[in-house]
Design a protein that fits this description.
It contains 6 helices and 18 strands. It has 268 residues and is an alpha/beta fold. The relative contact order is 0.12.
Length: 268
């Protein structure tokens, strides 16, 4: 990310602060004899995956176990947003182990993301561990979003910290809603406009008023019209995202959308 270059001959900025440096921008700077510019440092995002049931992707899965999907998908989302992902491995449901990983990530990174351990249960210690890292601690525990309700939003001694649900779809939806903007803010920039298309909804989708719903959809062309077909499934099924091309949002004050209505699809 470039901060600024200045055309001395005109006295006006060549590139605005917060602009992502493109190939043509480099050429434009060099044409003016500008060979050095100040750039933003990529924020380090520490990713801590938790759970006794989580195993490495290259390991066989026994009954009750799941492979570690989240730390890799969240790392990819971090890099896409302009951050630098730092994975801290799989931490068991053990308070001292989680505290040690949290302290290390807190010391080494600009943002910390805990994967899983945000739900309310006797094994979920994430909120308590976050509160021990610094003030003010947990600000929000639970958001009006589906998927992703048990999300934790926190700030400890000025450092943003997030606790994401363990379900992969929930984790990725919440990452885009909260963590991507945080990374961009630390870079001093904003998100570029996302590509969107209009389509007709292929089936009724119900929603509870007072909650934002994010529905994965694939696109079909039917008689010259674009249709959005919901890809339904539980939020722990990563293939609801793999088989989708984008999402539609059902607003907070809506009870759903009827089949045939026009919707806006935000493409991945």
């Amino acid at each position: 990310m470039i901060q600024i270059g200045e055309d001395i001959r005109r006295g006006s900025p060549v590139l605005a602060a917060g602009r992502k440096l493109r190939a043509q921008d480099i050429g434009g700077l060099l044409a003016l004899g500008i060979t050095e510019v100040d750039v933003a440092v990529r924020p380090r995002v520490g990713i801590v995956s938790t759970g006794d049931e989580v195993v490495a992707p290259d390991q066989p899965v026994r009954p009750g176990q799941v492979r570690d999907i989240n730390s890799y998908t969240l790392a990819a989302l971090t890099e896409r947003a302009g951050g630098q992902a730092v994975r801290y491995g799989i931490i068991p449901d053990d308070r001292p182990a989680l505290e040690a990983a949290a302290r290390r990530a807190f010391a080494e990174c600009d943002i910390i993301v805990f994967s899983a351990g945000s739900s309310v249960s006797y094994r979920d210690m994430t909120a308590d561990v976050i509160n021990d890292l610094g003030a003010p601690g947990v600000l929000v525990h639970g958001v009006s979003v589906k998927p992703g309700k048990p999300t934790i939003l926190a700030v400890c001694d000025g450092k943003p910290i997030f606790g994401l649900p363990g379900n992969p779809v929930s984790a990725m939806v919440i990452f885009d809603l909260f963590i991507t903007p945080t990374i961009l803010s630390l870079l001093g920039t904003s998100a570029p406009p996302q590509q969107q298309v209009r389509a007709r909804l292929a089936r009724n989708i119900a929603s509870d008023s007072g909650r934002e719903d994010y529905i994965q959809v694939r696109l079909e062309n039917r008689d010259g019209e674009q249709w959005a077909v919901p890809v339904l499934g539980k939020s722990n099924l990563i293939y609801t995202l793999v088989n989708a091309e984008g999402t539609i949002k059902i607003d907070l004050d809506s009870n759903g959308i009827k089949a045939g209505e026009w919707v806006t699809v935000t493409l991945f």
